[in-house]
Design a protein that fits this description.
By secondary structure, the chain is mainly beta. It has one domain: Beta-galactosidase, Chain A, domain 5 (Distorted Sandwich). It has helices at residues 51-56, 147-150, 274-279; strands at 2-5, 9-14, 20-26, 31-32, 62-65, 73-75, 78-80, 92-97, 100-107, 110-119, 122-131, 135-137, 140-145, 153-157, 162-165, 180-181, 184-186, 192-194, 197-199, 204-211, 217-222, 227-233, 240-247, 259-266, 284-286, 291-302. The strands form 6 sheets. Strands 8-9-10-11-26-22-21-14-19 form a 9-stranded antiparallel beta sheet, with no helix packed on it. Strand 8 and strand 9 form a beta hairpin. The chain is globular and about 50 Å long.
Length: 305
Amino acid sequence: MINLTSTSVAVRIDPRHGGEVLDLIDLSTGRQLLGRPPFASDEPVSGELDETTWTRAYRGGWQLLVPNAGNSCVVDGVEHGFHGRASTDSWEVSDLTPESARLDWEGHGLRVQRRFVLADDTVLVTSTVQAQRTASLVWVEHVGLGIELLDPSVEITLAGGRAYEVDETKGPAEPPADAAQWPQVRLLDGTLERADRAELRTPRGRLLIVADLPEGRLRVHNRDRRQGLELIWDTSWLPHLWMWHEVRTSGGPWRELAETLVIEPSSVPHTLGLRTARDLGQAHQLEAGQSRSFEIAVRPLVDPQ
């Protein structure tokens, strides 16, 4: 495990399992702001996994989903597992200081570098992806928020976007014509619902997309706990947002016990996987030798206004 600490925030990273961030702690309040599943996780495994296997090894926290995200699929005869191989493979630690770390991963014709830097109250992650050959990819930052932030309720602030509910295996793959403007969201049954507040008192499950964001900035604010969290990212690379709010409805490994809000800046407006994204012209494509870098910043907020 890698432990990084600044004056205001601490993170714990596991390079052996996807380079995932397991803990993000606001040192001024002592709160662990990332989520945990309601089950003991299986021993982590890597490879092109099905959804159940991936989920049973899930320990919560923050994962990078690449080159696939959502449904497993086959692209040009090559298998891509649920949520992408980079989220479960081991990453190489190529640089480490008390406040920074650089991790590297290679697979599916891509070389990915993640540099974590803690400065004051901010966790800044700079990612660079380079194509070793022509390659298509989906990129999603999978940030699961936990009970220390969510109990009993939070307000969610976004600048706008077209909002709609999706089925994780059926879509739709593109924003529907009647998609609502945030904070309203168009549900699968055709009705409208406000989505800028998440509560734990009533069982519910929603998988939402907010497409074509005007700004990559999201705030989650718990007025009762006087605690918040802010994410800032580059919408030229991640123009959409997935949002899964789950309160004791999902079965299987979740056992109808999960209480989480997963915030996922995404390159595509659906969870149907790389093949669908490529077929619809939504996937990022890099030519051999081409690279792209971008940043995402996460900052705990104390008594935010």
